[in-house]
User: Fold Putative sugar epimerase YhfK from Alkalibacillus haloalkaliphilus.
Amino acid sequence: MKKVLVVGANGQIGKHLVTFIQESDQLEAKAMIRKKSQASFFKDLGADVAVADLEGDIEDIKKAAEDVDSIVFTAGSGPHTGKDKTIMIDLDGAVKTIEAAKQANVKRFIMVSSFDTTREAIQSAPESFAPYVAAKHYADKWLKDTNLDYTIVHPGLLTNDEGTGQVSLSGQSEPTEVPREDVAKVIKAAVENDNTIGKSFKVVKGNQAVEDAIKAV
Assistant:
């Protein structure tokens, strides 16, 4: 049984992911949350819980990661925070988690990014969205420059629609919708399939079963 640390577990994708992991025969989840008051959802699922703040010390994140086999970073500052929180969570929080993974000797790292984090995407993004794209751009680059066994997932336009279990991992240039539930299924499948190591891919709604799509990456 392999243990997965889900950073940002209390987010919408994070909650789906922990649920799916706990339903698996091969994986078990450890939910990293910011407040103890968020723990009951995860304890009811039988998941381990670690309380650590992405704006705190790397040491706290390292402690959360010391008994796990892989880390999924699915934390985000959210759409209603300012540029400062975007930098502190989506960039610095991601980098600190990467560094904590290295210090805790956790090789496998899955990053949930933005749909397009290229330099061109930063330049063309609306002023209010550009800091988020820039933060994700540099967090992705930091991860790629490590020797970690990374996978970077680039979701399309996230919705709360019920998941279909079918996606497209094509490299299309314009984002289309994808349910958060299906993104969580893709992340879980990426954890389980080593062929995704060293790869980045976009996720949108499609007509290919998640497992088949992941195996074809």
Q: What stands out?
A: The two ends are 24 Å apart (CA to CA).
